[in-house]
Structures are given as C-alpha cells and as structure tokens.
Prior knowledge:
Blueprint: H1 13-19, H2 44-52, E1 56-59, H3 61-67, E2 74-79, H4 83-89, E3 96-102, E4 105-108
Parallel strand pairs: 1-2
Antiparallel strand pairs: 2-3, 3-4
Amino acid sequence: xxxxxxxxxxxxMEDAEETGVCGVARVIPNGNGVAGTVEEMLSEExxxxxxxxxxxxxxxxxxxxxxxxxxxxxxxSFLCKCDWFSGRFGVERNTGMFIREKEGRKEKx
Length: 109
C-alpha cells in the first residue's frame, strides 16, 4: 500500500510504478495523504487489504505511531528519530528497530 497523495517522503503510486514494484506485487493507494496509516481514513480497498492480510510489514515511525496497539500481526521497521522513541525503547537516536506486534502483544525482535 502506498500513499494516495504526496506526504513527506512516503511512496506514492507513481513511485511504485517508476521503480517497477507494480510489476512484481499488487500495489494499491491508501486513499489519503496523511503520515502513517489511520484506519478510519483508508480507502475501502486499503482497509480491505489491511483486514485480509495475514502479516503486515509497516515501514516508518509514523506507521508505528498510528497502528501500534491495533492487534494486527504487524512487523514494524523504523528509526527512533526522537528522544521520546529512543527513551521508550532504550536505544540511541536513529537506531533501527524491527518490532513485531500480534494480538495486542508487543515483542522486540
């Protein structure tokens, strides 16, 4: 899923087409231009994809901020870009994180 509109440095459909991702995977727009993934703002197609996914890989701190605690089987990949996140996870700023969340449980991988 890509952004429906340009926002920050997130990928759009144009980016997916230009890089060839559309040739190897089904790519859909999320229907909005908001940082992260706000379920209430997703397009019908985006929400359906999220609900049907067995596993979700969410890149970026904004996706962790907006999806964390939703109970889905999500693997988050992001950099701890601020002091609050660094403190929360006990790491230095700009440390790469890969965190799994399943059924409301959070596990550091």
